[in-house]
Design goal:
With 70 residues, this protein is an alpha+beta fold. 31% of the residues lie in helices and 20% in strands. Strand 2 and strand 3 form a beta hairpin. The model has no long low-confidence stretch (mean pLDDT 92).
Length: 70
């Protein structure tokens, strides 16, 4: 499944890692020591978020794209 949700990625000096937020999926975040690791972790977390939402019968937002929630 291709990931089409917007990712907001930034460096956290406090955590010494890249942080990824997925604004369209409430509470969906990941991190990684490298940019690539953070994106990979976010892809995994997005899949898990969607799987959990399906199991719980909750709605899954459609990807809307660029800065809809900024």
């Amino acid at each position: 499944m291709p990931i089409r949700y917007e990712l907001i990625i930034y460096w956290s000096e406090e955590d010494k890692s890249y942080i990824v937020e997925v604004p369209e999926l409430p509470g969906c975040m990941a991190d990684g020591q490298t940019y690539a690791d953070a994106v990979k972790a976010a892809e995994d977390v997005i899949r898990e978020w969607i799987e959990t939402a399906r199991e719980l019968g909750r709605p899954i937002p459609e990807p809307r794209g660029k800065l809809m929630y900024a």
